[in-house]
Design a protein that fits this description.
Blueprint (H helix, E strand, L loop, with lengths): L2 E7 L4 E8 L3 H9 L1 H4 L10 E6 L6 E7 L5 E12 L3 E8 L12 E11 L2 E9 L3 H9 L2 H9 L2 H6 L2
Antiparallel strand pairs: 1-2, 2-8, 3-4, 4-5, 5-6, 6-7, 7-8
Length: about 160
């Protein structure tokens, strides 16, 4: 498993998950830029993601859903707010309806992903900033922290393929 730390800070309203990847930042970046790679790891193994829209540019949006073991679907969206290729990625992430439209555009978390080269590859840190303590508590109670760690644990296998 690639996850090295997973920390929730209720006072700062953040969840931070860091991973060590055995790949250069250029390769780690592709895990986000390519929707076919992203859907192979975004979501825990029991809730795989399917991206049907992925506009990987500032102002662009993604739409995806995760399919549960019973076939149930949870829909969500991204809105990219900053992209510094191979260094940093910022986006908003929220829930959407079955058509992919945000249920409440103001009810979203902001995610910042940073990529730092290391001797062994890349340290990728995913910082989720929640808008309120209620949102943090709701998403943590839904299993977000464990789910994201399980999701990121799938990355090694993708990188091993080249």
């Amino acid at each position: 498993m690639t996850v090295t730390t997973s920390t929730t800070d209720a006072e700062a309203l953040t969840l931070t998950i860091a991973t060590e990847l055995a790949a250069a930042p250029e390769r780690a970046w592709q895990l986000w830029a390519d929707p076919r790679q992203l859907e192979r790891w975004w979501g825990p193994p029991t809730y795989p993601a399917t991206f049907h829209r992925h506009e990987f540019e500032v102002g662009g949006q993604s739409r995806y859903y995760m399919t549960g073991p019973a076939g149930d679907r949870s829909h969500a969206w991204f809105r990219f707010t900053a992209i510094d290729e191979r260094h940093r990625l910022d986006f908003d992430d929220g829930f959407s309806d079955n058509a992919g439209e945000p249920i409440d555009p103001n009810d979203h978390a902001h995610i910042t992903v940073t990529f730092e080269p290391t001797d062994a590859g890349t340290r990728m840190t995913v910082l989720t900033q929640f808008s309120s303590s209620e949102q943090l508590e709701r998403l943590i109670a839904m299993g977000m922290q464990e789910g994201m760690a399980e999701a990121m644990g799938q990355i090694d296998a993708i990188l091993a393929e080249g």
